[in-house]
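Regression check, heme C case 151:
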Amino acid sequence: MTVKYFFAALGVGLILTSCGTQESEYDRYYEQGYRDSVATARANAPEPAPGTKTPTAPKAAAEQPKQHPGAMLIAGSDCTACHNNQQKLVGPAYVDVAGKYEANDKNREYLIGKIKEGGAGVWGQVPMPPHPNLSNDDAGKMVDYILSLKK
Ligand code: HEC
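Current build output:
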């Protein structure tokens, strides 16, 4: 082997080793500095113009705004057959009930009793049927919701 070949072989070897230590695209992508610069660019990205609709994934049930527990109890009971939030049906609209009664302990007690025992004569002669199986707690939540509808 001549000296010439020796250096040629050494040269090839050096090229191969230097290639081996060079970072791949993949390594650079995950380099901390690169990630930081992406994070900064994202943080400094301009806000979309008002009115721009960004498609959003449908929210998971848990993320959706919580409904008032009283509203859910009313929706699950027979109340909806005779009452509506805004309009008089068989019974008065809940906004009208809310308008008639100030939200205080006395009125709360009275309305809980009325929902549980039923009765007539306040809004007309049609009676409100009793709900004896309703707990005070649940009736109270319904009353809280109804009185929260005050305009
Ligand atoms: C069959 C029809 C009917 C159903 C079912 C019904 N209501 Fe009534 N509700 C009435 C009527 C009629 C009145 C008016 C009673 C009166 O004039 O005293 C009334 C009155 C009320 C009032 C006002 C009470 C007052 O003295 O001012 C509230 C509050 C009320 N209902 C809540 C409920 C809730 C909550 C439910 C479900 C758990 C319910 N109602 C189910 C017919 C109904």
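Comparison notes: The chain has seven helices and no strands. The pocket of heme C is lined by residues 74, 77-79, 81-83, 90-92, 97, 111, 114-115, 119-124, 126, 128-129, 131, 142, 146 (CB under 6 Å). No diff flagged against the previous build.
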